[in-house]
Amino acid sequence: MNKKLSEIENEWIALHGRSCAELGSNNLVSPFLSAPMDGYTPGAPGTILYVGKATAGSWYDREYAEDNSPEGRKACTRSFVEWVRNGGYSSAFWHHAKCLSQAFTQHGAPPLSNLIWSNLCKIGVRTGNPEGRFLAIQRDLAVESLRAEIEAYQPSLVVFVTGTYAPDIIAKATQSNSLRSWELSPSGAQTRPPYQGSPGMLWTAHPQGKRKSSLSAWVDQAQSLMVAI
């Protein structure tokens, strides 16, 4: 049985402390935790779990020094997504997220209310993405965390925009070997239709620098996976 998400969230906080002691706090970003926005309903049609690689730079470090609880971390995530929603921040990653969300948003619902943002690694590094020991130290918990997020949030679709980064985390968390293999599409994306209670899944490269035609194709494939439910 998978651990409850709330239990795993506490484990991320504890792991961050141990990681800082081993690898140096100056090298690590304060932990990230996923959080649904107001209006998100687990199991509702058109819901999306949108998974990136990791946060970088500074992730609400000052707030973490004042409140290192899981709820404090999730409040920071909601604050950031609200900032994105209101146009305060934009990037290829978030433009694609909005396009996916809008494709399935129910009439009158706020933007991104049907989408939950997460990352494979919840403990980022100052520059780039975790590699080597920085990745190894959190790999097992990352697998458990992704499983628990899918179980708790019950999305209709999981979208990975992680490319070739840490594919073993996705494979283990989604139990690819025990369900069905991913199908490679002409757009370069890999898809897996809904199967025995598992949501549909779309695995693509990161949106940064990609052609509009590729991004549009990925949204179309997401719609096809939703229809397959």
* Share of β-strand residues: 5-15%
Please count the helical segments: 8
The SSE order reads: HEHHHEHHEHEEEH
Quickly count the domains.
1
Low-confidence stretches: none
Overall mean pLDDT stands at 93
Helix- and strand-based class?
alpha/beta
Helices and strands in order:
Layout (H helix, E strand, L loop, with lengths): L4 H19 L24 E5 L8 H6 L3 H16 L6 H13 L10 E5 L13 H4 L2 H15 L3 E4 L6 H7 L9 E2 L5 E3 L7 E4 L8 H16 L2
Helix pairs in contact: 1-6, 4-8, 6-7
Structure description:
- The chain has 229 residues and is an alpha/beta fold.
- The protein has a single domain (5-227), classed as 3-Layer(aba) Sandwich (Uracil-DNA Glycosylase, subunit E), CATH 3.40.470.
- Helix content is 42%, strand content 10%.
- The chain is built from eight helices and six strands, in the order αβαααβααβαβββα.
- The protein has a six-stranded mixed β-sheet, with helices on both faces.
- α1 packs antiparallel against α6.
